[in-house]
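Recall from the previous lesson that a structure prediction takes nothing but the amino acid sequence as input. Here we apply that procedure to GlxA family transcriptional regulator from Chitinophaga varians. The sequence below is the only information supplied.
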Amino acid sequence: MSASKKLVVIVPMEGTSLLDIAGPCDVFAQATKILRNDPQQPEEGYEILLASPGEGHHLKTQSGVEVVCPVTVAELDRPIDTLLIAGLGTEFFEYNRHDFYKWLKEVYPRLRRIGSVCIGAYALARAGLLNGRRATTHWQYSQDFQEQHPDVQVDTNPFYTRDGNVYTSGGLASGIDLALALLEEDYGRDLAALVAKKMVIYLRKPGYQTQFGDLLDHHQLANTLAGKLRPWMVQTLHEDLSVERLAAHANMSPRNFARVFLKECGLTPAKFVEKLRVETARKYLEESDLSIEQIAEKCGLGGMVSMRRVFLRHLSVSPSDYRRNFRTSLHH
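The prediction returns the following tokens.
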């Protein structure tokens, strides 16, 4: 390895997504290729090394594609610039990597920076490296992560976060966003932007992870008041859905209805109705040709101005931008 090249060690975990590994690898490889042709920086760039967290060198990814790691983390004997934990895969369900978590804790003081892709954040947390820090992970695991690691300030809204020299990123493709940010940190915006263009991706992805997640967990709410009333509510979103109306439909007093509703689903009836209206509007934006004004009326969100305000509050994106980013591929 050239003395100028930065050693990036990526640790793939058994059963993780191939994109968790390949995304960051491709970003650093593209950057190195460009720098190699730059007469002023031919020796700059990155050396990428895959290191297995355990004794074996062969790891099978979620897709069945096998990854070969030239070394294990225990065999690493060179100064590491950047260490990335690529996902967690089947390790997410087990705590049987105590030696690896111990190694992470021991090697951390010698690193310039350390990071994780997707639920690789669990590994950093289990090693104690996220205590008292702000971190993100895949939006789907937000609640579980916070419950398991209460000392971590979990925020699954951004695609990636930085707290000191510890970096975490959200789901799968967010590893690419993180790698581009690390590249920009090392070599500036121009090179990072050029790599993004060559890979036909955004340098900074528009929006937030919030846009991808569900506002309501309907499976968890199935046997609650909210779950039982939901089919009727979806059909009447354009009408007044006050506590009094909801309570009358459930044959309950408004006071008792509001108390039971909040206890069962953790939301007031008004907040639940608003989230349901946004969820239904999202579906129309993705799958229909209805105008935004028609969708706002159909979902009880008032006019376009009111709908935009509610979307920004819940999804951090306007209805028009949401449609542009998420409309089904069947529409052109």
